[in-house]
From TrEMBL:
List of catalytic residues: Y24 (proton acceptor), H106 (proton donor)
Pathway the protein takes part in: Metabolic intermediate biosynthesis; chorismate biosynthesis; chorismate from D-erythrose 4-phosphate and phosphoenolpyruvate: step 3/7
Protein name: 3-dehydroquinate dehydratase
Transmembrane domains' residue ranges: none
Enzyme class: lyase
Entry GO MF terms: 3-dehydroquinate dehydratase activity
Catalytic activity reported: 3-dehydroquinate = 3-dehydroshikimate + H2O
Binding annotation for substrate: N80, H86, D93, I107, S108, R117
Family statement: Belongs to the type-II 3-dehydroquinase family.
GN (gene name): aroQ
UniProt KW keywords: Amino-acid biosynthesis, Aromatic amino acid biosynthesis, Lyase
Transition state stabilizer (site feature) positions: R19
Subunit structure: Homododecamer.
Length: 149
């Protein structure tokens, strides 16, 4: 059985391609998911992509990833937590509590944006952080996660 790479996208990432293209580009979430599947396949991993605008759902998926890790079936998680990056101690705690190998990814460079976006609650519990590389950052994060685990 192939190890599973879980791609988790948070709030408003379903709007990729139309939301602020000057910041996020014109690639859609479907484009991101295709890139992630192709990159995971190169590494011999299965890939499942999920998106939710709800914090609790994201936390449930992190918990599920923790169970997959315990079962020896998880390659890792790539998380773009969107705005929850800057607000969710609960996501931080879920990642820390499960101990999953996680790559944090952001399409834009959060440190070049509004001051309220500069702090990430995810970074301290991530093995890999990639930001400011556009949607190509997802592929970079997957490869870096593979190298780090």
């Amino acid at each position: 059985m192939q190890a599973l790479l879980l791609i988790v996208n948070g709030p408003n990432l379903n709007l990729l391609g139309t939301r602020e293209p000057q910041i996020y580009g014109t690639a859609t979430l479907a484009d991101v998911e295709a890139l992630c599947r192709a990159t995971a396949s190169e590494l011999g991993w299965a890939c499942e992509c999920r998106q939710s605008n709800h914090e609790g759902v994201l936390i449930d998926w992190i918990h599920e990833a923790g169970e997959l890790m315990k079962a020896g079936r998880l390659a890792g998680v790539v998380l773009n937590a969107g705005a929850y990056t800057h607000t969710s101690i609960a996501l931080h705690d879920a990642i820390k509590g499960t101990g999953i190998p996680l790559a944090e990814v952001h399409i834009s460079d959060i440190h070049q944006r509004e001051p309220f976006r500069h702090h990430s609650y995810i970074t301290p519990v991530a093995k890999v952080v990639v930001m400011g590389k556009g949607v190509a950052g997802y592929a970079e994060a997957i490869r870096a996660l593979a190298a780090a685990t």
